Amino acid sequence: MSVNEINKLYEQSRAALSSQNPNLEAIGSQVSQLKVGLVKLALQNGQIESDPSFQLLKRSVTELGAELSIKVGDIAAFERYLAQLEPFYFGSRMGLSESKVMYPLIGLNLLRMLSDNLIADFHTVLERIDLEQLQNNPFIVHPVKLEQALMEGSYKKVWQARSEVPTPEYLFFMDILMTTIRNEVASCVEKSYLSLPFDDAKSVLFFSSLDELLKFAQEHQWTVSPSDKRITFKSTVEDTRLFQGENIMKQALSYAQELERIV
Questions:
Q1: Per-residue pLDDT reduced to its tens digit, 161-189
Q2: Residues paired with 195 in a beta bridge
Q3: Chain-centroid distance, C-alpha 37
Q4: What is the average pLDDT across 238-246?
Q5: How far apart, in whole angstroms, are the C-alpha atoms of residue 231 and residue 228?
Q6: What are the residues whose beta carbons fall under 8 Å from the beta carbon of 188, sequence distance 6 or more?
Q7: CA–CA dist 108, 78 (Å, integer)
Q8: What pLDDT does residue 252 have?
């Protein structure tokens, strides 16, 4: 493929991905063709890597791949694409002007790190972003505020942040993050309550519908009583206290045995 042919295929793929009902499988095949075409061009012409227009095309194809990976839910592929984009986004930026999708993709990557609890990596990326962008760019401000809410343990703010995403693509990682939070809250609720009314359980677990709550309850093997409109948890408060009492007894016996050995 020539540079013109790659450019043409890229424009077609970009338009297809932006359409209302994109054929993601077909676009994925086109992205593969684009990447192979770029590699072949670099092998055929060793000087082309220094050509700004080639680097621009290379960046554009990589960004397209990153956006596609979010559409298909391929987190590993998204992570690889963002690693490839680092030379274009930080430092000299390969001598290119700023990309229009640069900060949306960096913001998505920050959300990926938060959803995977990669806090150290999250802050490493923040250190490479201009202060003005950290304070004013909505694509960066959103994950920064989200991380602050997580550090405060304010899960309600995290839930509210879901309705404040700067672009719909952010919802992919927001939903992953909320799933993690719900599982943590569920673990605490099981140990704190015997049961909860539907409305209270729905509120504490940040569900907007009863169907979502009931599905979640089924996944956690909780007992659902439609007549009482209550959920009973498999790990009760009494069970927890009994388990704690058994531990205390075992520790006391162990201490007694140790004292006998000393005497």
A1: 999 999 999 999 999 999 988 988 898 88
A2: 232
A3: 31
A4: 48
A5: 9
A6: none
A7: 9
A8: 46
